[in-house]
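Figure S7 source data.
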Amino acid sequence: MSATDIQAVFARQVFDSRGRPTVEAEVSLAGGASGRASAPSGASRGAAEAFELRDSDPDRFEGRGVSRAVAAVNGEIGALLTGRDALAQRGADQAMRDLDGTAQLSRLGGNAILAVSIALARAGAAATGQPLFRRLADLAGVSGPAMPMPMVNILSGGLHAGRGMDVQDFLVIPVGANSYTQALEWVLRVRAAAAALCQEAGLTTLLADEGGLSPGFADGAEALTLMVRAFERAGLRPGEDAAIALDIAASSLTDAEGRYVFQRAGRTLDSGAMIALLAEWTTRFPIISIEDGLGEEDWSAWPELTRHLGHIQLIGDDLFATQADRIARGVREGAGNAALIKINQNGTLSGTLDALEAARAGGFATVISARSGETEDPFIADLAVGVAGGQIKIGSVRTSERMAKYNQLLRLEEEGLPFAGSGFIRR
Ligand code: 2PG
Ligand code: MG
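Tokens for the predicted magnesium ion complex:
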């Protein structure tokens, strides 16, 4: 046996930031190195995502238990990987896909396979004595790791806030910041200013799932106005120091006819009216990025959105679901110009790197993203830096499952890596 051979694979059920079960996996190697990782979980999920295997036992955790996924790791997956070389990440990821045998990893669970895949990368880094971000850079074939620009949730709606507002995310991008540290400081100021403004207006400051505020505005323009006022209160110039990004999460607004229902605003829009609304907001407010402005089924309207608003960043999240083939289709058809990258939408690290590569090859920008259900695992911070992803989206600057990533980025900045600034934002 060599030192980097996998000796044992183990999983347990732990709990995420919503108090829901998720899979945590550990991989240990013959030479003593080991790695641990846990799977995040989304609420506004794309239909093309890797499948989350849950127990569906209504008596336990509302059916959300993961004992079957845990058993898959402790049984079949462990047996498959034991004795294999941990440094052969791609081979192990492919072997797990083959063992599962389904397109969306529904037999063993994308949550089981992802946790093992990430734990394996950590064990590989430990065995080679590399910091994780360097190991990930090597696996991705990236020669210049870089600090990403954060896009940070300030106001939340949609499925992350009991549909208190129609639009899911109002985010700040501190475009004028010269370093990651400065970017984070500016964001913290904006977040505090937004909370103060809500309080002064007698609006709730309770937290949504990603730590954002959900003041419950019926009209998106009111929320956008509050964003701009928060920038000003924080001493930042709207559009120059700080700009707005939106995640419409349009798939979760879609009705049976494919129209978009803005329940709070009391309006139902077809694709053309949605594009017109987004165009109007973009002329009135300093918006430089819109995610899922149309739904995942609305492929025919995405090119029209891109023709109208392609001067700003248009990100596909549910649309691409971190699948290389869907991103390649987006590139071919002119659907958007950027891809959200979520490790658990894909299900393996290698597949995630393939999705990144498909975006890059097509000239699309990338945003490495967390899920609304997260754990204390800071993996995506190292991923964003290692692959020079350019941008990162973690949620708000509250609650430790988010801060674990923001704080890990502070540690990585000490390595003297360059800051991407706004250079990687597609404009
Ligand atoms: C999104 C994510 C993160 P969820 O839509 O981009 O904000 O949400 O994890 O619920 O899919
Ligand atoms: Mg999204």
